[in-house]
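Quick one, T. Sequence first:
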Amino acid sequence: MVAGATLALVACVAGLFLYALSPADAKDASPRTFEVVAGQGLRAVADRLAAAHLVRSASAFDAYAFFVGRATMVRPGLYRLAPSMTSAAILSILTNPHANEATVTIPEGDNLFQIDRLLSDALVIKPGALVALQASGTDGNLEGTLFPDTYQFYTDSSATSVVAEMRAGFAAKAAPLFAAAGLGTSTDPASGTAEMRTLILASILEKEVPDLTDQEIVAGILLKRIRAGMPLDVDATVCYGALLAAHGASTSCASLTPLDFKMKSPYNTYLYEGLPPGPIGNPGASAITAALHPQNSPYWYYLSDPATGKTIFAKTLDEQTANRVKYLESH
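Structure tokens:
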């Protein structure tokens, strides 16, 4: 009789314990960002998990961690957790040495604001951390030097460490292209180093033209227009100027208005001659190669066919106007 009552009590306690370890809300699979702060003990982590409605019971989570021998293995970092996860699943994530690693691919041409958003979405940095670092001037101008590639980061990294990693990528894959072309740090009093001028041109090509051969032709067109004292008339630079004015509130060029093309920004290449003062994104090896090897051609104008992405070239303004009607205004 007593043994039976004891077994029933044990079964009841076990059942309650298992219930306490079950999902806080089995229907809510929406991920939430949860941070484990360095030096924070298991009990504090458990209390915060319960307060965030990610576990049913802080005490049960705490006890389970001790029972399975992982009480001292919770790792600092940012994590994606959902109320639909069991306490066991959450503990497994928080103690996994690889759980706070993030693989992030930076697309060619992405600007600082876009990269900031990609990295913060992956929990690598806090939102706005890269933009704030740029504003501080601590690491100089970041735009153009964050080489687009696939990187392995830790969550909750500092913006400085992320920049160092991406600049190492630039040194490994972009700098040799400049060196092979004989470009170093010779200074042009008007526009900074020849390398920077090339990087600015490459960032424009990356946004404007997808094909390497066409990029080389467009590089020749833009340099020819600069020598002739003609404005570049590049939409992508206007977009970047609008982006800076909006402090990165939008990263899309689809919403450019006629007012944007009248904006008094040094990036408005419809109003101001020459290259803009800095890169408008972070170009990859192909665009840098094209900027280093501009091709002469009879063309002075170009546009992109929105239907095919093909670059359409023109020798005269009349030809360009006809192309605009044919490829742009008819869509």
